[in-house]
Amino acid sequence: MCYQITLAREVICEGIGLHSGKLSKIKLLPAPEDTGIIFVRTDLAGCPQIEAVAENVTTTLRATTISNGQAQVFTIEHLMSALHVCKIDNCRIEMSSEEPPVEDGCSAIFFAALQKAGQKKQQKKRKEIVIDKVYRIDDREKFVVALPYDGFRVSFTSLNEHPLIGIQYADFTINKTTYEKEIAPARTIAYEKEIEQLRSMGLGLGGSLENVIVYNDKGWINKLRFDNELVRHKILDIIGDLRLTGGIVKGHFIAVKSGHKLNTALAGLIRRNVNT
Predict the structure, then answer these.
(1) Structural domains of the chain sorted by starting position, each given as residue range(s) with its CATH number in brackets
(2) Is 260 a catalytic residue?
């Protein structure tokens, strides 16, 4: 029998947000049994709380955003990814602004912080989400599927029309060791020609060559950590979005060109149909 886990102690991460460009300080705190993952906007009156579950997703434009009334938190997927792989059931996340820090554009900083915090086993049984049938979300040529599997596995195919990238495929059985080495270091990627458009939309204001891998028609502007870093980052994202099922998942997830919209839709479909 698996029991719920929370953090053993408080840990802090700080820096600027990828899209907001604002300074952000987050405290990852232990939480009681059955709390789940809760974001708390300590900078707002009344410190509103937002539960990290699929029904609270309000937009998926370039990031996953969850809201409760007027309070929102966006670009949660990197932090949620690390929490998912570390199998943290209960965590209170106090935030000084609307977006976690981007650090270097991956989830390694959050994974390291969770290792530093340590874990505390609790008394109640874990809410494990076990995939017991096929679930599928389609959007024309894009799709994501959940299949029964004894473990946690992600297979992702990325198709990009740019000749520099083309088709990338990766398949990993996800555990802490694999994640730390193969997935957590993979950074956010952007096409140089899109950057000004994103900034005109109020997005990517904290992006730089320190936290985003950028490419143009001539090649990569900064050095890659992996030849297929883009698809590895896609896997990082889907791991985070799947934590919006409300529990630790067990299954095989196969995605083609999927993004936050399809990922979170799948999380919502699973959440509505699987008993936790």
Answers:
(1) 3-128 (3.30.230.20)
(2) yes
